[in-house]
Specification:
Layout (H helix, E strand, L loop, with lengths): L10 H15 L2 H31 L4 H32 L4 H4 L18 H16 L1 H20 L5 H17 L1 H17 L11 H8 L16
């Protein structure tokens, strides 16, 4: 696989040098910022998006919709974990070295990586979360997909992945999240629905559950005794 990227005329390599070239001309503070964002920051933002989706679902007025969204918010990180596990044998089978092994002159912001390059774990994880959240909630899903695209750019910018590593990660993460989504939702939705009915754990699904139950109680007035106007 490494031979596919050894030729300087290869568009994969050309795009690698073009994007990584921004790191060479960027000031040091920007390189350090991109290093943190690409390695940790975007993944932390993904966690916040998943929590935000769950929190928003708890405040929804539609009970069944809340159950579905919470189940989808649970599926997103699970899909990411499964996608990364699937990637382990793929990386070993392809055996593609990191770009800085075969190509000189790259500005590598995170040195010391010795594992294989294809496909990118970061891109796989980020896009799996994005696709999983999109199944649950369109707005949060689109935001997560946007972050996943930014993650892919950062990995190439830092000189630790080829563009095709990132594209492969996007494809793998999307495939796992969407193809397994029907089965995952079929399993998770009844569990979340059961939690929603629980007196102790219902707050994990319904933010105003107790208030809604209280407001649903209709007070029935006591019957008044009939008056007999003909009585003497």
């Amino acid at each position: 696989m490494a031979g596919l990227a050894s030729d300087g005329s290869n568009p994969d390599v050309s795009l690698l040098y073009d994007i990584n070239g921004f790191a060479k001309s960027a000031p040091g503070w920007l390189d350090r910022t991109m290093e943190f964002v690409g390695e940790y920051g975007i993944l932390l933002a993904m966690v916040l998006l998943v929590l935000g989706c769950w929190w928003q679902a708890r405040k929804g007025a539609d009970h069944e919709r809340s159950v579905t969204v919470v189940a989808g918010a649970l599926w997103a990180p699970l899909a990411a974990g499964i996608a990364v596990l699937v990637n382990i044998p793929i990386r070993g089978f392809v055996g593609r070295p990191r770009p800085f092994v075969d190509h000189k002159g790259l500005d590598v912001l995170i040195p010391g990586k010795t594992d294989f390059s294809f496909v990118s774990d970061h891109a796989t994880l980020a896009m799996a979360v994005g696709a999983g959240l999109f199944v649950a909630h369109r707005k949060f899903g689109l935001a997560a997909i946007g972050l996943a695209l930014a993650e892919g750019f950062c990995r190439v910018f830092m000189g630790v992945h080829y563009p095709t590593d990132v594209i492969g990660g996007f494809a793998l993460g999307t495939a796992v999240a969407l193809l397994l989504s029907p089965l995952a939702m079929a399993l998770l939705t009844p569990v979340v629905r059961a939690v929603a009915r629980s007196e102790r754990l219902g707050f994990l699904v319904r933010f105003r559950r107790s208030r809604e139950v209280a407001s649903a109680v209709v007070e029935i007035p006591e019957p008044r005794p009939e008056r007999n106007d003909l009585a003497a």
